[in-house]
From TrEMBL:
GO BP term (any one): glycine betaine biosynthetic process from choline
Organism, as annotated: Kushneria marisflavi
InterPro entries in the record: BetI_C, DNA-bd_HTH_TetR-type_CS, Homeodomain-like_sf, HTH-type_TetR-like_transc_reg, HTH_TetR, Tet_transcr_reg_TetR-rel_C_sf, Tscrpt_rep_BetI
Keyword GTP-binding assigned: no
DNA-binding region boundaries: 26-45
GO molecular function ontology, one term from the record: DNA-binding transcription factor activity
Domain HTH tetR-type span(s) in chain numbering: 3-63
Pathway: Amine and polyamine biosynthesis; betaine biosynthesis via choline pathway [regulation]
Functional note: Repressor involved in the biosynthesis of the osmoprotectant glycine betaine. It represses transcription of the choline transporter BetT and the genes of BetAB involved in the synthesis of glycine betaine. Repressor involved in choline regulation of the bet genes.
Cited NCBIfam families: betaine_BetI, PRK00767.1
Protein name per the record: HTH-type transcriptional regulator BetI
Keywords: DNA-binding, Repressor, Transcription, Transcription regulation
Gene: betI
Length: 193
């Protein structure tokens, strides 16, 4: 499928979920918004679940790119700076728009019941945990690094979820500050290297 057409369908999916929610979004609504026939969605994606998976893969690609952009500006391998970049990337503009937040929420709830989506969620969760754990491991024992990584991943998800549930009051700067303070608390005075 043409990349432009694919992007139109992904954008239409997010806009339709934003407007109607996943349960009330239909293939017909999405296809109409994208300006394509409903058959194209079924043909290329196998239906609404496949389209949601493709949309989430796009959002996850944006997330990875936002973290990578921040990490590319770093001068070295300082764990604190890399952890800050991971935190900031998770609260990037690409991850906190209304449409993207509602799509994330729809994905999370649907992934509990759909094996293909559940696998995608597990991969995303493991990637975040692994990246965080690797950075903490530069300064903490293995057990402490793992515990700190679980804590930071939970804090990122929790702050993001609270923001998604009350977007008009979502203070992104404060969420980043809180998560970065957690990083500082874990690293300060705990250097084992």
């Amino acid at each position: 499928m043409e990349p432009i057409r694919r992007q139109q369908l992904i954008d239409a999916t997010m806009a339709t979920i934003d407007e109607a929610g996943l349960a009330d979004s239909t293939i017909m609504q999405i296809s109409r918004r994208a300006g394509v026939s409903a058959g194209i969605i079924s043909h290329y994606f196998g239906g609404k679940d496949g389209l949601l998976e493709a949309t989430m893969r796009h959002i996850l690609t944006d997330l990875g790119a936002s973290v990578a952009r921040r990490r590319d500006t770093l001068s070295g391998s300082d764990a604190r700076e890399h952890l800050y970049a991971i935190v900031e990337g998770n609260f990037d503009r690409s991850q906190v728009s209304q449409a993207v937040m509602k799509t994330w929420l729809a994905f999370w709830t649907t992934s509990m019941h759909k094996p293909d989506l559940q696998r995608l969620q597990r991969v995303n969760d493991r990637r975040l945990y692994s990246n965080i754990s690797y950075q903490f491991r530069k300064h903490l024992t293995l057990d402490r690094a793992r515990t700190a990584a679980r804590g930071l991943a939970a804090l990122i998800d929790g702050l993001w979820l609270r923001g998604a549930l009350s977007p008009e009051k979502f203070d992104i700067s404060n969420a980043i500050w809180l998560a970065c303070r957690y990083v500082d608390e874990q690293l300060d005075g705990n250097d084992t290297a």
